[in-house]
Amino acid sequence: MKYSKATNYALHTMLFLVAAAPNKPIGVQQLAERQGVSPTYLSKILTKLVKADLIESASGANGGYRLKRKQEEISFLDIIHAIEGTASLFDCTLNHSSTCPIQKEMIEAEQQMERYLQNKKMSELAVKITVD
Question: Is residue 79 within 8 Å of residue 122, measured between CB atoms?
């Protein structure tokens, strides 16, 4: 399975916001430069994170993006769902009953992965990195 580049940028952006200064707004230009991505592209990702109530934007000269939720509450899964959505990764295409043994196994595997990602908090990684 593979997540989109947008998810990669969203995870790194959120890690930077958690590690840098949770209450101080950081501009899109600085966030984009840090990852070597276009500010326009990153703005679209940031919009999804805002809609998911993970971050908020502040306008004005000292504006930018900052965390909306407490940093210890933000999980990897929250960020992934904000970008990728919540649809199942596997969908059995055969026309048979909902008791498909393959579908059941795939759903169980996905649930285990989601539990892991829900328990992995961005703040756990933020203490391990330094922000310039």
Answer: yes
Tell me the residue ranges of DSSP E strands in 29-124.
55-58, 64-67
CA angle 54, 55, 56 (to 5 degrees): 140
The burial class, CB within 10 Å (0-12 / 13-18 / 19+), for 110 is middle
Instruction: Using the Cα atoms of residue 108, residue 120, residue 14 and residue 74 in order, give the sign of their dihedral.
Output: positive
Q: What is the pTM of this model?
A: 0.87
Rounded alpha-carbon distances, angstroms, from residue 10 to 35, 46, 88, 108: 10, 7, 20, 26
> Quick one: CA dihedral 5, 7, 12, 14, positive or negative?
positive
Q: What is the pLDDT of residues 28-66, one digit of tens each?
A: 999 999 999 999 999 999 999 999 999 999 888 788 999
Element (H, E) at 7: helix 5-20
